[in-house]
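User: What would this chain look like folded?
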Amino acid sequence: MLRTGKSALLPAMNTYNRKTTLMSRDSRVFYALLLLALVVFGANIGGYDLWPPDEPRFTEVAREMVESGDYLVPRVNGEVYQEKPPLLFWLIALSSTPFGDVNEWAARIPSVLCAVYVVALTFALASRLFTTQVALWSALILMSCFQFWWQARRGQIDMVLTAGMMTTLYAFWRWDDERHKKWLFLAYAGIAAGLLAKGPPALVFPGLFLVAYYWGNREGRAATRWVWGFAAAIVVALLWFVPARLLGADSAAQAVESGMGANLFRNTIGRALMGVSKAQPPWYYLKTLPVGLLPWTFICPPVLYWAWKNRKDSQAMRFLWAWIGPALIFFSVVIGKRELYLLPLFPVFAILFGAALVHLREKENFTWLRRGGIVWSILLILMGFSPLVLSHIPYVLESNIHLYIVAAVAFFAGNLGLLHIRKSGAHVVPATMAGQALLLFTVAVFTIFPEVNQFKSARNICAPIRQLAESGTEIKVFSAGFSREEYVYYSRHFHEPVFTGLIGEITPDNLMEQAKLQKKAQKLIIRAVREVPLASLEHPTPEEKALLLDAIDVAVGESENADAIRAFEDELRVAVQDFFERLSQPKPAFCFVQEDNWRWLIALLEGEQPMSVVSEEGVGSRHVLLLGNAEGLRLLNQAN
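Assistant: Here's the prediction, encoded as structure tokens.
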């Protein structure tokens, strides 16, 4: 049950009648907020393509589920996918039903709906912890936080995880207040959903919370029956995990050794403790959180001061800090980090901000709050001049009508907000900042996002392959030097990755040594050929090939492990010859290759190469070529 403190700073917030329900006026506010959230998060989610790295991968997994009818074993590019659990893939597959295809709408709808659900729970929790007024501001703040808004529109796992974690947090508060077993059931159901969404992180957030919240209160923690609850949640996840691994492996032994064990090590222990992926320093979140919390970063000083000063003044404040504090410490200590790993903390950040602002707005001349709103408004005004600045900077988005529209909206919103704050004082800052952010976000998704899409999407370069694939034509597709799921998704055809793994005969005793050597050698060779001028990427002259080989020879000769790298180069030459011989067969074949990789491929090839450029595009930061052999080009000409 709720236990209040003695501080005079929380007079109205520390009272709460558990028997009261939302009155009609509060209900209208609540549903209006959810409608606004649905509009803001869902605006134009189908108006641009899937952006790497995660969106195309997860959507392709769902697409292959739908096409194969196998919803138990996730696959991507025809191979078993063991990196993530299946809940998001199931939700994407389900949301694709009205469209008849797993498209961009289907990929993002689960995140949109989960985000609206999280906003609803944030409102409900804040109203029970404090007041309806705090709940209103908490919901608006959460909706207008940049990181939360961004993830609400992405076909990624973390918003689904956040929905599960927020369910658990809300249920724990209801349990602590009412002691009805149904709330414990709901709490552990949220953990089970989180495990099916992202795995072990679903245990980390509630586990740390229970330790912190019931610190020194062993009986209170035991009453939550957390051992049985966590075990039940894990069993639910294992009901999918074990059959999926067994069916996706050639044998039970392989499932245990290469599936279950390796997956647990790589994705949990490896990332957290050894930094096998996304290694970052302990202060990483000090850099990313201020960006993720925009625009509310500008009023962090007074909010943090208030929240810390009152951290022990009520059970509600202890409850919120028990969710935030241990998780922030834990994710700062672990080596693998991404800004979205803290997404389950954002609803609680929003509630703390909302509670602080309700108090701070009562101080008409509160300087820090007023200054924060003014700084944000000035920043928006400066954004209005961005097209003039960007036009003088090379390699950025060209100034066009869409950029001018966003700049004009930012300029207008900044000036209007600045005048409003200066005229009315600090109490209008929260509403002004939320309105400015939501307006700017919504305009951006209709203007800037489609423009950026031209540079991030692989749709255009995949169009020729998709045309043949959808007509049922039998073709072979390769991807040389890289393997990205967006090319599989937009081609609607599997590809065979080549030159993406180790080359030559590798024994287990020198696996790590050879992996490091080959990675170093590939980077060295790519750097060596990158600056050699070529009149034609498709068919370089003998003189240009000689220049490419000379550049490689010089770079290898100057390296520390010259002899070992030359031995690897010899093996690479053999692999290159074998690959191009496959492309020379009288069967239609195509190959995606990045320009950097294509340069060393044609340099190491002896004789004429049998491929012609079908198309080339800038996809992200890479220049990508689609090549076809003679038979492949003949098929394309017939199709057109």
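The chain has 27 helices and seven strands. If you want, I can go into more detail on any region.
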